[in-house]
Amino acid sequence: MSRDLRKYARQTSVQLAFGAILLLFLVGDGLIYLIYGKGAALMGLSCLLIGLAPLVIIVLLMLLLNWVVKLANRD
């Protein structure tokens, strides 16, 4: 039985990032909702989404570059 430690590390990193974002959205926006109300929570949610957009764009570009490099190195 072989272990792919790179795959495990990648999977763990993805799970940690997803958990952090989920925690930020649920706890952060939930506290805004509890303290300030629905309107402020919607504004907070929109700010979180706009702030997350550059990160998503960078991740998508890196995935695209990875795909292009793998395609070019098929020989």
List the helices and strands and how they pair.
Elements: H1 5-36, H2 38-72
Helix pairs in contact: 1-2
- How much of the residues is beta strand, in percent? under 5%
Number of helices: 2
Number of domains: 1
Provide the structure class: mainly alpha
Binned, the helix content reads over 70%
**Over all CA atoms, what is the radius of gyration?**
18 Å
Description:
With 75 residues, the chain is mainly α. It has one domain. It has two helices and no strands. The chain has helices at 5-36, 38-72. Helix 1 (5-36) packs antiparallel against helix 2 (38-72). The longest helix is centred in the last third of the chain and has 35 residues, at 38-72. It is elongated. The two termini are 29 Å apart. The model has no long low-confidence stretch (mean pLDDT 93).
From the structure above, extract its key features.
single chain; 75 residues; mainly alpha
Brief sketch in words of this structure:
Helix content is 89%, strand content 0%. It has 75 residues and is mainly alpha-helical.
